[in-house]
Amino acid sequence: MTVNHLFKQLSGLANSPVMPVMFIGHGTPMNVLPNNPYHDSWRDLGASLGKPQAILCVSAHWTTREQTQIASTETPKTIYDFYNFPAEMYQMDYPAKGAPEMAHAIADELMPTAFHLELNNAYGLDHGTWCVIKPMFPDADVPVFQLSIAMNREPMYHYQLGQALRFLRRKGVLIISSGNIVHNLRTLRFDGHQYDWALNFDEISKEKIESRDDEALINFDQFGSAAQLSINSAEHYYPLLYTLGLREDKDDTLQFNTDITSSLSMRSVIFSQPV
Fold it and tell me: What is the rounded distance in angstroms from the CA atom of residue 106 to the CA atom of residue 206?
């Protein structure tokens, strides 16, 4: 594949109306099953979006170390990266095609910048991706590919990489980040107990998203123990930083699925521009 051909993959896509970007609180993989409020909200969201050219997902469940990878898999397999769930969960499949040529083109586009993406031609679709996208686009007729989270990088890196990917919003690419703002499975309870620190950090996040105080959310350590307990494993929080980086001045903000169970918040956000 020549460099000219790679550039044509992006330049050949007609400029589109500016696509929305979103951070989805995904919670348990069981939310993919019908007849629960999260599945239904994702289904309704997908129905409202129209059909994108492709979907790029930043999932909490694909982490690398120093290097950000982008999946160039032609036919990504459905990954069952969860354990001891009902048999029906392992029988599900999401047979979307990948977007290898677009992945090559994006990596090439960012080559002159500080963000050198490493191509991975084997990674499939993990549950942070397919459990969210399956209700949105049940026909699996949109190419889907993923971007990894380089965990040894500082929070600002993830935010700025999101900024570097803004051009895709005008190429018909829907960028979905999938994680949870408050995510501490060690302290998770199902007896109705609510932690003050979890409620506090969720409320801080809500306010900072609305006020566009991205710097505060990048430097989350300033919020002390509330942040430390809520983000005890940052891979679920970092996807939010990509979405914040992708936001533009003209975007409206919609927060939804704002409930929190113990130490797991489902708060989700969409940034979109008025038609």
Answer: 31
